[in-house]
Amino acid sequence: MTQSLDVTDLAQLLKVIADETRLRILGALAARSMTGKELAEHLDLSAPTISHHMKKLTEAGVVVMETEAQRHWYRLNGDLLLASKRVPLSADALPAAVPDHLDEDERFRAKVIRDFFDGERLKEIPAQRKRRVIVLQHILERFEPERTYTEREVNEIIRPVHEDVATLRRELVDYGYMLRDRGIYQMARAAPERTRQIAQEITGDEGSWLASLLQVAIEANGADPDET
Fold this sequence. Notes:
This protein is α+β, with helices and mostly antiparallel strands.
């Protein structure tokens, strides 16, 4: 069945895929269908990171998930992509569908990740705190909420991102994203209470962001990771 889109639908679709990691995922799926595990290995990403982005892409309809026995396969939705090419654009319609104030926080977050990351590698640790928090949140996606980690394991996860593992590990703890107890680390289950000063450094609804990240990661790890 042929899908139909209007300018508003197209604007929402573009908003979802305007993320470097999601574009890399779509590029991989353009070659062939893959499981979550294959995507993680192909793109050198963690399973929670893949699950987080696949949820966004499948909800938007640009990727379709198909189940075969216990395995979940992902493929591009060719019908939707073809429909997006047929959307009539006009100078009058586009500004109305994509107002300047639409999801300003998400656009800022995407810009920071685009500016400071080369793929999954962090070019430099931002000096400006608002940008640094976004970088820390992006790094947190590499961890699994149900697991505990030794300091060495935390370092091994952070090191492919940036060589200054000590600073990034400390910042994850200082901002309350990772909890540390006698040398053992684990992702926080909820965002901590913030002082007014720290709250000004946070982009968007931190509580909802962390809850969504935890939910997606836990759901992903509920199945056999080899079959996700």
